Q: What sequence folds into this?
């Protein structure tokens, strides 16, 4: 996330926050999702794992790792 500058928060859910951000070198605008892991006694929430698993299967230029 150090390559991006957060501009504003555009959404928030139970397990994460989505920010509008800009890539520092290219000025490309993106949406960054930061998953909250604090206060999770049992580890990463299963819904977060499910979302990451599904997104990793997608092949799209707007989804980056």
A:
């Amino acid at each position: 996330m150090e390559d991006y500058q957060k501009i504003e928060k555009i959404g928030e859910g139970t397990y994460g926050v989505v920010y509008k951000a800009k890539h520092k070198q290219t000025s490309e605008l993106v949406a960054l999702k930061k998953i909250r892991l604090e206060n999770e006694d049992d580890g990463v929430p299963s819904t977060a794992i499910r979302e990451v698993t599904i997104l990793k299967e997608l092949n799209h230029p707007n989804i980056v790792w």
About this structure: Residues 4-57 form a domain with the Phosphorylase Kinase; domain 1 fold (CATH 3.30.200.20). The CA atoms of residues 8 and 20 lie 5 Å apart. Residues 46-57 form the longest helix (12 residues). The longest strand covers residues 4-12.
